[in-house]
Design a protein that fits this description.
It is built from six helices and six strands. The protein has a six-stranded mixed beta sheet. 41% of the residues lie in helices and 17% in strands. The longest helix has 29 residues. The protein is globular. It is of the alpha+beta class. About 2% of the residues have low confidence.
């Protein structure tokens, strides 16, 4: 597998440094922000990255850790945790609130090793409760590299995450159709040969 963003050298650097990291702030500085830089985002430029942004809907005391932007337009939300803490959906409250009040279509929950990716597959402009993709930096897959490619920033203008989200929604819908068709064909016909006919019927009704 060809790697450009999640190279073996980059992953090894994070593996070496993470055991020396203590607390959430060091996790951000030493583990998360280096990945942002690899994707082309300038941490020190407000047109690229905004930090500690107040969550939406009037909740001033809560802030989202990062908002990644293109030419100043917010596009990706990132909530960071200490690398020693396992990720869970309880940690998504700030992401959920900001997502619902913004134009962003991608939200990331990460501890610098695990990265969970959320969007609005179920209901438009409402962040899903479960991630559509999970990535472990120490066990990179082809789909992880493809996702990194879709969210990288190239020459301040090349941004492809919207296309990626649409593709993922289409894939999920097709998977759901196939699963439903299999259930119906197995339950009603007891015959695997009925699967394609049932699938065609489902597609024609949607």
């Amino acid at each position: 597998m060809e790697k450009y963003y999640l190279t073996d050298e980059f992953v090894q650097e994070i593996q070496l440094v993470h055991t020396l990291v203590h607390g959430e702030q060091e996790t951000k500085n030493k583990m998360i922000e280096p990945l942002f830089r690899r994707l082309g985002y300038d941490i020190d430029c407000l047109d690229d990255v905004r930090t500690e942004v107040p969550c939406g809907m009037g909740i001033k005391q809560e802030k989202i850790d990062y908002v990644l932007c293109i030419a100043g337009k917010p596009l990706i939300l990132v909530e960071a945790k200490d690398w020693k803490k396992k990720l869970n959906t309880v940690n998504t409250n700030q992401l959920f609130r900001y997502f619902c009040s913004s134009e962003c279509k991608l939200a990331i929950l990460t501890n610098g090793i695990d990265y969970w990716f959320f969007s609005d597959f179920e209901h438009e402009n409402i962040m899903d409760e479960t991630p559509f993709h999970k990535m472990n930096l120490f066990a990179v897959s082809r789909s992880d590299e493809e996702l990194m490619k879709s969210i990288c920033k190239v020459q301040q203008c090349c941004y492809d995450v919207s296309k990626y989200i649409i593709e993922q929604k289409t894939i999920r819908l097709l998977q759901e159709k196939r699963y439903l068709a299999k259930l119906i064909s197995d339950a009603c016909f007891k015959d695997s040969s009925a699967y394609e006919a049932v699938l065609h019927g489902i597609e024609s009704c949607l």
